[in-house]
C-alpha cells in the first residue's frame, strides 16, 4: 500500500490470509485497538484472529448455541473489555465476551439482549462516556436502546429508551457526543428523513432538534469523534452521492437554530457507497462500494475534501476445487 501524507510517502504491504470457516462469511470486524479480528459465518461459529507482526493468526473458535447464526457484528468501546454484540437471522441480539476460565482467556456467548419481531438493520455501541449502551435499529422505524446494568459483567441488559423515527425501515444511525451536553443520535429512514435527536433526562425521551433535509435514500451515516474542532462532522452515503456535513458546535446549552452546512459532495455513478467509517481522530473517512472498492477521503489545509487512496479487491480463481477456504487479495492505487 502506498500512503501519501503531505510530502511523506510510506510503503505498506497488504497481506491476504485464509480462514478455516466452512461456509459463507457474513461479517468481519476489528476491535477498537486494532489487534483482534472476529468473523462470523454460516457454519455457526465465530473465529478470532490476533495481529502479530502484521499477520493475522487464528487464536480461537467459538461454536455458538444452536440456531445462532450471526450475520452482523459490533465491538463495544475497549473501556469495557472485549465485548461483542451480534445479530442473528432470528432477529436476536446476543452478547459475546472474553472471559478467563480454566487458567486461560477464551470467548463465551453470554446472553441475549433482545428478540425483536421486525428485521434488525443495524447495531452500534454508544461512546463509552454513556456506559455500556447498545442501539438496535429495526425495519419498523424504531431505534431501541439498551444498557448493561453492570458493564463489568455484560450478562444483564435492560431497555433504556426508544426513538420512533418513522413508520418505515430505519436504515442507519450513529451516536454524537459533545462534552457537557446530552448525547445526540442521527438517524436515516427509508422515507428519506435524516434527523438529529437529543436525549431529555426528564421523561427519558428523545426529541428531534435538526432535520438535514436530505431527499435521497440513505445507505449509511457516521458521526466523527469530536476531537480538536469547534464543529461536528457527519458523513452520509446516499443513492446518488457521498456527502459530508458540518454541524455547528452547540453553545449556551441551546439546540435552537443549529447551523448546518454541506461542505463536500461527491457524485457516485453506477457505484453506490454502502458503508462508511471515520478514523479515531475524525480526519480521514473510509467508504466501501457495491463494486468492492474502498476509498479514503481527507480534506486539505483549505478544507477541500478529496480521495487520497483507492483500494480495489480482485477475485482470483482457486485451482484447488476441494479447498473451501476464502482468500482476499487487494490492490492499492493512488
From TrEMBL:
Q: Name one GO molecular function term.
A: structural molecule activity
Q: Which residues form a coiled coil?
A: none
UniProt WD repeat ranges = 18-50
Q: Which GO terms describe its biological process?
A: cellular response to amino acid starvation; positive regulation of TORC1 signaling; protein transport
A Pfam family in this protein?
WD40
Location of region: Disordered: 312-334
Query: Which cellular compartments is it found in?
Result: Nucleus envelope
Task: List, as start-end ranges, the regions of compositional bias called Acidic residues.
Answer: 314-334
The principal localisation class reads nucleus
Identify the keywords attached in UniProt to this record, alphabetized.
Nucleus, Protein transport, Repeat, Transport, WD repeat
GO terms under cellular component: nuclear pore outer ring; Seh1-associated complex
Q: Which domain of life is it from?
A: Eukaryota
By sequence similarity, the record places it as follows: Belongs to the WD repeat SEC13 family.
Q: What is this protein called?
A: Nucleoporin seh1
The source organism is Anaeramoeba flamelloides
Taxonomy of origin reads:
Eukaryota, Metamonada, Anaeramoebidae, Anaeramoeba
